[in-house]
Amino acid sequence: MTEERRDDHSHEDEVLERIEAWRRRRPKLKDEFINSAHGAGGKASAALIDAVFLEAFRNKSLETMADGAVLELPGGDRVAFSTDGYVVKPRRFPGGSVGDLAVNGTVNDLAMMGAVPQWLSASFIIEDGFSITELRDLVADMAAAALKAGVQIVTGDTKVVNKGACDGVYITTAGVGVIPANIHLDAKSVRPGDKVLVSGKIGDHGVAVLIARGDLALEADIPTDSAPLGELVEHLLAAAPNTRFLRDPTRGGVATVLNELAREAEVGVVMQESALPIRNIVNGACEILGIDPLYVANEGKLVAVVPAEETEAALAAMQAHPFGVDAAVIGEIREDPPGIVILNTVFGGNRIVDMLVGDPLPRIC
Fold this sequence. Notes:
Layout: H1 3-24, H2 43-57, E1 69-72, E2 78-86, E3 92-93, E4 96-97, H3 98-111, E5 116-127, H4 132-149, E6 152-161, E7 169-179, E8 195-198, H5 204-213, H6 230-239, E9 245-247, H7 253-265, E10 268-272, H8 280-289, E11 303-306, H9 311-319, E12 328-334, E13 341-344, E14 350-352
Parallel strand pairs: 5-6, 10-13
Antiparallel strand pairs: 1-2, 2-7, 3-4, 5-7, 8-11, 8-12, 9-11, 10-12, 13-14
Helix pairs in contact: 3-4, 6-9
């Protein structure tokens, strides 16, 4: 064996050892106090959920760590149940508000489980002194969003806290949807060779909120992508009935969703940077902030994994829908390296895309 060949193998072994060490990492809760990173959807969130909530509430439904729970009724029918809280600042931003976000976010969590969203609850934590006029406006946004999504808000609760105890108003919604008998989505069903699709341009929501907040010295017309995805999912599943996995890349963005998938399914995910649909202005804003748009939250996009033979049909179905016109195939599932997400860059190299660390964009959903 030549010296050059030995060097090649030495480098390959080193890379494999580094990847294996990366795969073995597990989130561990070392913090004594809550910080903003625990709500960002990345490593700190995973550690908090695993060490505190999952440890206390452990059950079969919760252990799936999906967007919600799939529950089987006595008659054999299945329903999806999900809940989420919304604390975005500012409460109103280009193209939306915390009101319609609170509806669309929970509707989309249900849709990602293959369910047809039906009913929501809404809980309001309101600061003493909050404007009734603004509250009416936010509730009107919720009503309009529910009508558009085809769901009803059927129950709720209101609490008022002392001035300074919350920032205006926080909204929590929970939702229930019915899962058709032929739909079975599960990260563990993902197989090498499957393709990874995203339904449109990523990072719009996070950047829209940052611009509205005044965190960036930019004047750009970037509205939130907040939208109900139930109908888009129905079209996708009709065209690609063997779709393996769906998830909306909210906190932590596309990178976090794919990392969670890779670890749950014990597969590798390889993305192509050249295929990622990202607006130039979003890329520019992320460069200014020193963050990767793959980690920026979206509120009207989905990530789908479909069998290779159904990819063309899935892509066409999404692109034919108003909320999927910019859909793209961004990567594929590989057998190796298991538990790792890799990005092939436009420069011909590659890099590992890890779980989000910290919270670069707090309170954007």
